[in-house]
Amino acid sequence: MRAAEASAVAREWQRFTPAERVARFSVYLAIVAAIVWSIDTIEVIPEFLYDAPEQMADLLVRMWPIDYAHYPRAIHETLVETLHIATLGTILTLVMAVPVGLLTARTITPHPALNWLGQLILVSSRSVNSLVWALLFVAVFGPGALAGTLAIAFRSVGFVGKLLAEALEETHKGPIEALRAVGAPWLSILLKGYWPQVQPSFWSISLLRWDINVRESAVLGLVGAGGIGVALDDALNFFYWDRVAMILLTIFVVVIVAEVAVNAIRKKII
């Protein structure tokens, strides 16, 4: 009896083993070290932090009242251009992303080298920010909406192509095998077997990307790639804070409307 009691005491339950405690402590220590290193690297100036609330309050005072009359003079045209950039960029994205998605999907292209090439294209597209793409195309084609459209398109290929490839790989194999069994050509298998299964996902991905592109195209004008960002850049450069407020309000309203519209359409599709 005493031996059983001693064994129960010796086997006292612990949430973490000593090795797990050391590992948890090492992770916490690494996080704290990374935070301290980051703060030291970015050189935070305490005086600016103390003064930030006062500066923000002063900025809000300068933004009020909002210059609503500035909208028809300079904002509306650039807003329409922004929507055109997002729409044309999304259409161009679909043209480029579909072949890359087919190349990446292992169920469509059972060749590892070609799959790797497709993944390389998708990763290259996603790894470069839209502003960087815009700077590149502004240098090639000059300032304007063309540079913005191409920047949106090349940035979005990775997003659309990756999700399309994943949708293709998740399709049911039954219809595909049935079409192959009756000797259907490759294009018929693609259109009759794969497309009906991925069609809802494809349109959902396209709408979601258009919604994202509307937001991203709103700032491309800051680097000369057209759109409402041009009006925002001009207002910031001349310290017209009431006009800045009007432009920011316009962007906010357009983004909200686009979000609501896209969600409504996606519910109908899905």
Contiguous helical run count: 11
The residue-averaged pLDDT reads 82
CATH superfamily of the largest domain: MetI-like
What structural class do you assign from the helix and strand content? mainly alpha
Can you give the helix content as a percent range? Answer: over 70%
Count of folded domains? 2
Q: Tell me, what is the CATH class of the largest domain?
A: Mainly Alpha
Mind telling me which CATH architecture of the largest domain this is? Orthogonal Bundle
Structural overview:
By secondary structure, this protein is mainly α. The protein folds into 2 domains: 2-62, no CATH class; 73-269, MetI-like fold, CATH 1.10.3720.10. The protein is 81% helix and 0% strand. The protein contains 11 helices and no strands. Helix 7 (145-169) packs across helix 9 (186-217). The longest helix has 35 residues, at 70-104. The N and C termini lie far apart (66 Å). 30% of the residues are buried. The model has no long low-confidence stretch (mean pLDDT 82).
Secondary structure elements and pairings:
Elements: H1 2-10, H2 18-42, H3 46-63, H4 70-104, H5 112-127, H6 130-141, H7 145-169, H8 173-181, H9 186-217, H10 228-237, H11 241-269
Brief overview:
Helix content is 81%, strand content 0%.
List keywords for this structure.
270 residues; mainly alpha; MetI-like fold; 2 domains
